[in-house]
Specification:
Helices cover 42% and strands 23% of the residues. Strand 4, helix 4 and strand 5 form a beta-alpha-beta unit. Helix 2 runs parallel beside helix 3. Strands 2-1-3-4-5 form a five-stranded parallel beta sheet, with helices on both faces. It is built from five helices and seven strands, in the order βαβαβαβαβαββ. With 139 residues, the protein is of the alpha/beta class. It is globular, with a radius of gyration of 15 Å.
């Protein structure tokens, strides 16, 4: 499983990446919003951890553009922006989860595991336009 961490605080991003490595996840770090958006659209990630306050492109804009581009990666917003309006903005524009800073690393890992577990339950279903093939039922 590949995870993209878009976070401008490199020490935090590096700590998250190190913890994810212990959980057997591969992680990439981008500390700039525009670079993160480019990476998210040119590579395949199972999950994206996305900060809001980023240089060159903020996380809400990245989220909206990724969903407009039909990027299917799960997205967890991880940010200090903790008002209910910010949370609703993130969730209404396609974030799968929203965690406010400060946070506990174990909670982040648990939420990542939940998102990726939910994703794994649908790995045997292939979809293309209006065609759906359930590999489990076709045996």
């Amino acid at each position: 499983m590949r995870i993209l961490i878009i976070e401008d605080e490199f020490n935090l991003a590096d700590a998250i990446k190190a913890r994810l490595k212990k959980e057997k996840y591969l992680g990439d770090i981008k500390i700039d919003g525009l670079d993160g958006y480019f990476d998210a659209t040119t590579n395949v990630y199972d999950l994206i951890i996305l900060d809001v306050m980023l240089p060159n492109m903020d996380g809400f804009e990245i989220l909206k553009k990724l969903r407009e581009d039909n990027i299917a990666s799960k997205i967890i917003m991880l940010t200090a922006k903790s008002t209910i309006e910010d949370k609703l903005d993130g969730l209404e524009h396609g974030a799968n989860d929203y965690i406010t800073k400060p946070f506990h690393m174990d909670e982040l890992v648990a939420r990542i595991n939940i998102q990726l577990k939910n994703d794994l339950t649908n790995k045997n279903v292939l979809e293309y336009q209006e065609l759906t093939l359930d590999l489990d039922k076709s045996k």
